[in-house]
Amino acid sequence: MLRQYWQRWRQQQRYRVFILPSRYGLSYSLLIVVMLLGAINYNNSLGHLLCFLLVSVGHVAMHHSYRNVRQLDYQLGRAEPVFCQQPVLLPLNLTNQSPRPIRQLDIAYLPSISRSGWWPLKQFSRYLPVYKAPQLAAEQTSLHLIPIPTHKRGWQDLGRLRLSSVYPIGLLLSWFFIDIQQRVLIYPRPMGNKPLPPPSTMDDSAALQHQQGLDDFAGFHRYRVGDARQHIAWKALARDGILRTKQFSSPSGQKMLFKWDDVADLPDTEAKLSQLCQWILTADTAGMQYGLILPKQTITIDSGDQHRHFCLQSLALYGQ
Predict the structure, then answer these.
(1) What DSSP character marks residue 80?
(2) Any transmembrane segments, and where (predicted)?
(3) Cβ 149 vs Cβ 128: under 8 Å
(4) Three state DSSP letters for 116-130
């Protein structure tokens, strides 16, 4: 038994719980002060009784608010790379160690670039609400995917989460912080309308055969971010509500080589990277082999998930 208490105490020391009155709590306190002054001025015993009753309600609410957050333990998972302007889904395992359910849990996010200073209230208003957990069952562990916004490609340091609650009656706000201490790779946003360039080391007749191969329907697969919009199966979506992408077969031996010169006519670097990213996803969906030539890097022709990640990583870190 002593060992269990020791382990629980060690887990509770992972974070410090803060508690302050909410805006409603401040109004509630001001109302009590005004009522107390009136009761003193008119020597009204019932007014004193009502003031003391309201103070006791706030005192009990303070203990419930603190206990609602204090018995919560957490474990962070590893975030996977995503495309720019697509939210990072951070796995967060929340464990309720209390025999009572935890209610009204709100999760907010603060980017690391906005965090400065040690005082926890300095950046309090800059947190972005990203997730709500209405109730966590007693003595249970649940997995939650916390969406974290992204704005630019490259490595993004995941900042800090704030877990807070105004349970039970909204007068007090209890919260604690989680420093994520991770960074995630953000791919360029797949976007562009340019057609695929001609296949590598092929004459015009072979290139024509290649284009015909892209039109050979091979089936459907679940929609993935970056799939070409013209390949979406709209009729199937209207029929059963499931978003699918048409998959096309290509002749064996086809090899694509995406060059920086192929997108030289685009206005800026980000547009070029987005177009190359779109081509890579299109070729990967079609099952083709492809390579990538950047100004200071050349990736040989290959295929597969690791090759796709390596190409997208090179685009994400270009110029950094």
Answers:
(1) P
(2) 21-40
(3) yes
(4) CCCCCCCCHHHCEEE
